[in-house]
């Protein structure tokens, strides 16, 4: 307990100082007026948690499984991922149900090569039916302000030979969204605003057995870019590029998308590197012969255990994964929690 005889002589001056501080703070708020920047808000429906910037949609978290497009196996349907994601100019930067890799869903979480109770579990490749990640529950949905956030949980399930699911990881996502004014990104988008998505994953093993994440070349947190960033001609050109160390990258008009890391590397040298940031950007649309470009920049938190986190940059497709398993196997033991934090900055123009 605090000594009242010590505090009594200071009580009056302290009270006056405290009142002055509070008064100054209140006056500062009045002088500042209403928020000068855009307002962000979360809206929950039966199927989604959607984040808006004023009246513009920023992103959508899928509480239920979107229907697969015609021609895509419905077994690729799943819930518990973020898509679409839009730039401040309203250009979509994420992709879903891409014809070449329909199991890649916007911003998603899935380990690929794991072992649980002596059996292989693959949460990434849905068609193998060895594992799956699905939405479980909404924890909190924030209100309106210069920053908003929501928290949800997805569960990572093993699937046995009879099709029975067993929940292994309870994965809590906290997704915060705000805006920043970036540096000049192009002649037409000078000082263009950017969205910042602060994404955290807390994966807790809720079983009595360890889950082993094997060393593997991809898996973890995945990001699939706009479906228009892939085509057969672009894949052919990029496949030739990555095989020739001295070759120049194909023009963006052909490749449709491009990677760039903090080390100045593209997909050829950036794959399995450990950069401080990674960008993926591409041509979203075109008007009057002018290409409109948008993209996303991923920055890992210095608090992550494997910082700077290794990245998998696909040689021909517009997707990357943040993959600590690249540098070695590790376990998530019973009751243990694997934690990681990333910022995804969404922009118009080139990085």
Automatic annotation (TrEMBL):
User: In which domain of life is the source organism classified?
Assistant: Bacteria
Species the sequence originates in: Stieleria neptunia
Provide the leader sequence positions.
1-28
Name under which the protein is recorded: Uncharacterized protein
Q: What lineage does the source organism belong to?
A: Bacteria, Pseudomonadati, Planctomycetota, Planctomycetia, Pirellulales
Going by the UniProt record, its keywords in alphabetical order are: Signal
């Amino acid at each position: 307990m605090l000594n009242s005889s010590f505090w009594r002589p200071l009580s009056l001056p302290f009270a006056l100082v405290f009142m002055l501080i509070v008064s100054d703070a209140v006056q500062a708020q009045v002088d500042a007026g209403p928020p000068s920047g855009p307002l962000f808000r979360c809206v929950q429906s039966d199927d989604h948690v959607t984040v808006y910037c004023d009246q513009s949609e920023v992103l959508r978290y899928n509480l239920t499984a979107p229907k697969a497009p015609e021609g895509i196996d419905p077994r690729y349907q799943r819930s518990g991922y973020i898509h679409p994601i839009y730039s401040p100019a309203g250009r979509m930067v994420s992709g879903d149900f891409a014809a070449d890799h329909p199991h890649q869903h916007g911003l998603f979480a899935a380990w690929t090569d794991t072992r649980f109770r002596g059996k292989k579990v693959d949460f990434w490749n849905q068609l193998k039916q060895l594992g799956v990640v699905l939405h479980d529950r909404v924890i909190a949905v924030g209100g309106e302000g210069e920053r908003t956030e929501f928290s949800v949980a997805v569960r990572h399930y093993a699937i046995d030979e009879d099709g029975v699911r067993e929940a292994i990881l309870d994965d809590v996502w906290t997704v915060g969204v705000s805006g920043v004014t970036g540096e000049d990104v192009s002649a037409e988008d000078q000082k263009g605003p950017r969205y910042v998505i602060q994404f955290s994953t807390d994966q807790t093993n809720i079983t009595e057995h360890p889950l082993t994440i094997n060393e593997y070349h991809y898996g973890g947190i995945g990001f699939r870019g706009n479906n228009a960033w892939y085509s057969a001609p672009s894949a052919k050109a990029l496949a030739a590029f990555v095989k020739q160390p001295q070759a120049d990258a194909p023009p963006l008009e052909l490749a449709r998308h491009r990677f760039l890391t903090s080390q100045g590397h593209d997909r050829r040298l950036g794959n399995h590197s450990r950069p401080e940031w990674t960008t993926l950007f591409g041509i979203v649309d075109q008007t009057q012969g002018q290409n409109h470009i948008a993209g996303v920049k991923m920055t890992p938190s210095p608090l992550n255990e494997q910082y700077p986190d290794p990245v998998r940059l696909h040689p021909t497709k517009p997707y990357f994964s943040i993959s600590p398993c690249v540098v070695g196997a590790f376990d998530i033991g019973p009751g243990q929690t694997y934690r990681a934090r990333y910022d995804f900055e969404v922009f118009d123009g080139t990085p």
